[in-house]
Structure to design on (450 residues):
């Protein structure tokens, strides 16, 4: 195993733990974005560039964006409910 | 079940599961020693048989094209599910009344809007290049489709938007998703008509490393790209409650 | 040391499960589910790897070089994009659940009533 693979594996293990331990969803979206990048580096180290490209566009950009949009929808509904009361 | 009891059951379960998992993984061949013959045969048959240099693209769309067809329909169904969940809710609830439909700028700073608008062209080009060259280099419909979605999303970010209310989003995004999903299935039908098996590669293979090579793999890549782009745009539009793309001059 | 990839995959699975069980927020739960999914990607790619082999793209190398398995790359790359849309579906469910119960805490959500 090369040094890059070992470093990427350890980074991914720490990143996964950090994603789970970040309890606030907005903060967790940002940590998930960094975790996605670490996964992409790991996939590159495993000689799978197609998968790394997929992971970069989805896990580092698409997934955190979707989480933020869902949170925004929920927070806006809470504000509307509070105004109605 | 109280929380403490649930955590105890989980702890017991995960210890047992972890033990079985580690024992099972220890029985795998050592890391790097995998000698799967099917994979090696596919990798070394991709170039001579299909004249396409990316063995992963050939495996995705030609040798294992049926699996990709099913995955495409998972994508399609998930997007339809999001639409059903969120659009019905929006039609049923009272939307905050707007006296007249107003277009407001999405990004509030002028320089930010200029930079975002300037990035649309390069992103579109990058997405198209990755989709079309999928059979030659790493890339293809899935990756390029997400980049195309990002490019069109930048149009929304850099321009003006309008609250959606009970309106429907632009039909073209939904059409793109449907055309992509149907296109993949229909190209497979061409395989039956011409070559006798569904999804059989029936177009001429061309020369290796040409843009037009690999039979129907570039066409399938374009279909997948259209579908991924359309599905993600529809999903984003539902989450934002806003019309992502509008025709010029219309309200 | 050659067991490290499998150990990391098992660790990600277990820590994701722990996050799901002890979660207090539906959106946090869904992101932990995506961590569990990523453990399967790591396991698949680790299984298909061959020592001293290169990526299965023959655009610039000769066709006789040893390459890693392309089948696991196929499975993983379609999976990454499709699971992102499934996560979007789960987030839409979470939005609806919030609208129905007024809270995102799984412990405080009651049963669905017909």
């Amino acid at each position: 195993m090369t040094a890059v693979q070992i470093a990427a594996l350890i980074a991914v293990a720490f990143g996964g733990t950090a994603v789970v331990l970040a309890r606030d969803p907005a903060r967790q979206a940002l940590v998930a974005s960094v975790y996605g990048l670490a996964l992409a580096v790991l996939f590159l180290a495993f000689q799978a560039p197609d998968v790394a490209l997929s992971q970069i566009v989805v896990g580092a950009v698409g997934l955190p964006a979707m989480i933020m949009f869902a949170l925004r929808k929920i927070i806006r509904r809470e504000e509307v409910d509070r105004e109605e009361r | 079940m109280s929380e403490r009891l649930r955590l105890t059951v989980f702890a017991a379960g995960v210890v047992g599961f972890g033990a079985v998992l580690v024992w099972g993984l220890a029985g795998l061949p050592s890391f790097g020693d995998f000698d799967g013959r099917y994979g090696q045969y596919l990798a070394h048959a991709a170039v001579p048989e299909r004249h396409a240099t990316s063995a992963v693209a050939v495996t995705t769309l030609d040798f294992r094209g049926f699996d990709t067809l099913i995955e495409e329909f998972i994508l399609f169904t998930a997007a339809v599910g999001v639409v059903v969940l969120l659009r019905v809710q929006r039609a049923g609830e009272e939307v905050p009344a707007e006296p007249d439909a107003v277009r407001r700028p999405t990004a509030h700073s002028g320089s930010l809007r200029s930079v975002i608008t300037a990035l649309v062209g390069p992103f579109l080009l990058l997405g198209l290049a990755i989709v079309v060259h999928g059979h030659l280099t790493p890339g293809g419909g899935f990756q390029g489709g997400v980049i195309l979605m990002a490019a069109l999303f930048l149009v929304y970010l850099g321009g003006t938007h309008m609250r959606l209310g009970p309106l429907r989003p632009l039909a073209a995004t939904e059409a793109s998703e449907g055309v992509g999903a149907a296109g993949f299935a229909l190209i497979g039908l061409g395989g039956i008509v011409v070559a006798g098996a569904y999804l059989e590669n029936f177009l001429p293979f061309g020369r290796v490393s040409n843009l037009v090579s690999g039979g129907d793999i570039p066409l399938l890549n374009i279909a997948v790209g259209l579908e991924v782009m359309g599905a993600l745009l529809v999903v984003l539009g539902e989450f934002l409650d806003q019309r992502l793309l509008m025709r010029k001059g219309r309200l | 040391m050659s067991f490290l990839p499998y150990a990391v995959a098992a660790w990600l699975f277990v820590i994701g499960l722990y996050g799901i069980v002890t979660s207090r927020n539906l959106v946090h739960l869904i992101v932990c589910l995506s961590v569990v999914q990523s453990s399967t990607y790591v396991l698949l790619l680790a299984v298909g790897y061959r020592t001293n082999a290169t990526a299965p793209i023959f655009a610039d190398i000769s066709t006789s070089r040893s390459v890693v398995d392309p089948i696991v790359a196929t499975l993983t790359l379609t999976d990454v994009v499709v699971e992102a849309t499934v996560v979007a579906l789960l987030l839409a469910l979470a939005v609806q659940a919030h609208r129905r119960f007024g809270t995102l805490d799984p412990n405080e959500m009651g049963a669905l009533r017909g």
Q: What stands out?
A: Chain B has a mean pLDDT of 80. Chain B has one domain: 53-243. Residues 102 and 162 of chain B are 6 Å apart (CA to CA).
